[in-house]
Automatic annotation (TrEMBL):
The keyword Hydrolase does not apply. Transmembrane segments: none annotated. GO terms for molecular function: kinase activity. It comes from Ensifer adhaerens. This is Carbohydrate kinase family protein. It holds the Pfam family PfkB.
Length: 315
């Protein structure tokens, strides 16, 4: 099996997004259009990391259907090493979202039953044990079952690997609770951080203390276009993301932030520089109609960094 520096576990499925053309009218029919592409938190991050020059392997469950073939083709196009656990008699998972005209989410439905079949036993396969042992970074999203996430994080941390998680949603982020101490970083938006902590932080600067109290070693909390906070151990920093002239679609922005941040960490950069890289990567994605922008590259990320201010370190 071809070795990769990064192993990504979790969601690799079909994203369907309907965009309302005018002003949203709740409870009634809204004119708009549909768009379909391969997506999933883990898969978006895997493609971003591959386009940033890393060798990336994606491990996920998949059905034996046309949707699964679409995911396979998207992995090949992005240069991701694809290692699916395929169930020929099942449907590939899907995520269906309704977006307002400005790109913000109205509501979404996630059909993710197939991920339940990714049990901890699957991680005992020799091939997957070797993948984890050979990777510098093991990244998972919260689409997998809680017990599988815990087993994966414990195994990767036990091998001394950098271990990171993507929250995905407020309903799913709580799946990380049994393994928070094994994560190097957890990437969340403010709603997800609130669901995990069980309380709200009035200011961005309050999140590190709240999350450290749960046993989290490091993480990032995004707040839409407002101040973003990152922390690792006793260090923490904040930055206000640069305003964008136009917002194409919010889908995948958090996955891109995690990708840029982790790429910088693998290069040995400090927490402040990692946050700048993450915000720059998110900006590239927010300007794209795709959840994993085809414009993501090391060169374009370097240009986007010029727009991101230096983070302020917190005492």
């Amino acid at each position: 099996m071809t070795q990769a520096d990064i192993a990504v576990f979790g969601g690799a499925h079909i994203d369907r997004r309907g965009r309302i053309s005018g002003t949203t009218a709740p409870g009634s029919s809204n004119p708009g259009s549909w768009f379909e592409e391969a997506g999933g938190g883990g898969f978006n991050a895997a493609r971003n990391l591959a386009r940033l020059g890393h060798s990336v392997r994606m491990i996920s469950t998949r059905g034996g259907d046309a949707a699964g073939e679409m995911v396979t083709a998207a992995a090949a196009a992005a240069g991701v090493i694809d290692s699916p656990l395929t169930f020929l008699d099942r449907q590939t998972p899907s995520y269906t979202a309704i977006l307002e005209n400005d790109g913000n989410l109205v509501i979404a439905l996630a059909d993710m039953e197939l991920y339940r079949l990714f049990s901890p036993r699957q991680l005992q396969r020799r091939a997957l044990r070797e993948v984890i042992a050979a990777s510098k970074l093991v990244l998972t999203d919260a689409n997998l079952p809680e017990e599988t996430i815990a087993a994966l994080a414990q195994s990767a941390a036990g091998n001394g690997r950098l271990v990171a998680g993507i929250a995905v949603s407020p309903a799913k982020v709580i799946r990380y609770r049994p393994c928070l101490s094994h994560l190097s970083f957890l990437f969340m938006n403010e709603s997800e951080a609130r669901a995990l902590a069980g309380k709200e932080a009035a200011e961005a600067e309050e999140w590190p203390a709240l999350l450290r109290g749960l046993g989290i070693n490091g993480g990032v909390v995004t707040r839409g276009g407002r101040t973003v906070v990152a922390f690792e151990g006793d260090s923490a920093c904040v930055v206000v993301p640069p305003a964008l002239p136009a917002l194409a679609d919010v889908t995948g922005a958090g996955d891109a932030l995690a990708s840029g941040f982790l790429s910088a960490r693998l290069a040995g950069r400090d927490i402040a520089d990692c946050l700048r890289h993450g915000i720059a990567a998110a900006g590239l994605t927010l300007r794209s109609p795709l959840a994993a922008s085809e414009e993501m590259s090391a060169a374009n990320l370097e240009q986007a960094l010029a727009l991101v201010p230096a983070p302020q370190m917190l005492s």
